[in-house]
Amino acid sequence: QVQLVESGGGLVQPGGSLRLSCAASGSIFRIYRMGWYRRAPGKERELVASITDPDRTNYADSVKDRFTISRDDDTNNVYLQMYSLKPEDTAVYYCNADVKITIDYKTYTYWGRGTQVTISS
Q: Most CB within 10 Å of its CB: which of 5, 37, 46, 61?
């Protein structure tokens, strides 16, 4: 029905930056909330940032002033610009979206498969 595909992860030194992208495709009528979550080794999955329609954002305290979430509704993409990366930002980052689909005009939550971000010197 709807696919979310993340990209942009990788290995970066502390203090570096990365930009994650997530492309949504499929039977999309409208995308409401989009978000980024992460799961670090041995930890629970946590919300990193979210953005609603219209553009109201929410960030985890640990990433405020370092990460910026944005979306492009023309292309159904959501982005996470990450600056001043720290080793504790190492995790698998997942894209998430609440989507009203064209099949039944109901809203469902979808997840991507994740992209690995590793911060290490």
A: 37
